[in-house]
Specification:
Blueprint lengths: L1 E10 L2 E11 L4 E5 L6 H8 L7 E6 L10 H4 E4 L11 H11 L5 H9 L15 H13 L5 E5 L7 H16 L3 E5 L3 H7 L2 E6 L2 E7 H6 L5 E5 L3 H8 L5 E6 L2 E5 L3 H10 L6 E5 L3 H9 L14
Parallel strand pairs: 3-7, 3-8, 5-6, 6-7
Antiparallel strand pairs: 1-2, 1-4, 8-9, 10-12, 10-13, 11-12
Length: 305
């Protein structure tokens, strides 16, 4: 279990993390989301004792990270995958970590196989691609077989096969009862990987809830309508507080009316419907809604590039 209690971090006059409190439970993948500059990386560094909080506290399994007698066997972390001596091979890098943390050398080959690097274990890490470097970083995090994982952007640089692999790996580790805390900017991937979400903006907590609850609370659920008489139906549906858009011929996206009312309107006009599907907002759409006032740099239509 990971616990943050009124965690704050100031850099001069800038408050990067502001009285942040949350708990990451074992047994599920918990996603950590926020715009650039939201304080995610600073929070993770404080959890791992790399940055000292200005106020508040952070603990992992009831202790500060630095108070664990064998931290690598308690917590596996990935903050910067390329923080590896470029002249060392993947195997040598992991063997050095194992030797300095009392981990059996045989574990090195186990994690190399687990992350798919067994065939390149003797190659120098400096020649690794971004995706291979990510896999080596994940191998380092898993080396001590920890019960808690803290991973910052673990899918960065991975190809589709690698993304599927890390998704299934983290879900399986959580299913074993481990605590898995992972950040990502890929909303579509987080929707598939995580069960619970912690969302921050400008250093403050914006949401601490399940993926299902967060997407369910999104405003403006849409209804997808397909018909050969789309133009005619659109004229019958448009009104106050009703938005009807079209992304392709014969397809309408209606916001502000229920599917029942749309269906009855079409029936009264004798308009046959091919599809009538309520659509909940995606995680990305809800994320944009709740963080719109917390972005570091906004984009404005018509602004100079």
């Amino acid at each position: 279990m990971i616990e943050a209690s009124s965690l704050s971090k100031a850099y001069g006059d800038t408050l990067a993390v502001n009285a942040l409190s949350f708990t990451v439970q074992p047994g599920v993948v918990t996603g950590f989301l926020g715009p650039n500059g939201a304080g995610k990386s600073t929070t993770m560094r404080m959890l791992l004792g790399l940055d000292r909080p200005t106020s508040g506290s952070a603990s992992i399994n009831g202790r500060r990270y630095v108070d664990h007698p064998a931290p690598l066997c308690e917590v596996g972390a990935l903050l910067e995958a390329r923080a590896v001596h470029t002249g060392r091979s993947a195997r040598s890098h992991l063997r050095a970590l194992a030797a300095t943390n009392g981990i059996p050398a045989r574990r090195v080959d186990e994690v190399l196989e687990l992350v798919g690097l067994e065939s390149v274990g003797r190659r120098r890490a400096g020649g690794f691609s971004l995706g291979m470097g990510q896999r080596l970083g994940i191998a380092s995090a898993l080396l001590g077989d920890p019960g808690t994982l803290i991973l910052d952007e673990p899918v960065n640089g991975l190809d589709p096969e690698g993304i599927l692999w890390i998704r299934n790996l983290l879900k399986s580790l959580a299913a074993e009862g481990r605590t898995v805390f992972v950040s990502s900017h890929l909303m579509s991937e987080m929707a598939l990987m995580a069960t619970h979400l912690i969302v921050v903006g400008k250093g403050r907590l914006l949401a601490d809830t399940s993926v299902a609850e967060l997407t369910g609370r999104g405003s403006g659920s849409d209804v997808l309508v397909r018909t050969e008489r789309a133009t005619e139906l659109r004229e019958r549906l448009v009104g106050p507080d009703v938005e009807v858009t079209s992304s392709e011929p014969g397809c309408l996206v209606v916001r502000g009316l229920s599917s029942d009312l749309i269906g009855r309107t079409a029936a009264n006009e004798g308009i046959a419907l091919i599809e009538l599907t309520p659509r909940q907002p995606t995680l990305e759409e809800v994320f944009m809604q709740i963080t719109q006032d917390s972005v570091e740099y906004g984009h404005h239509v018509g602004a100079a590039s």
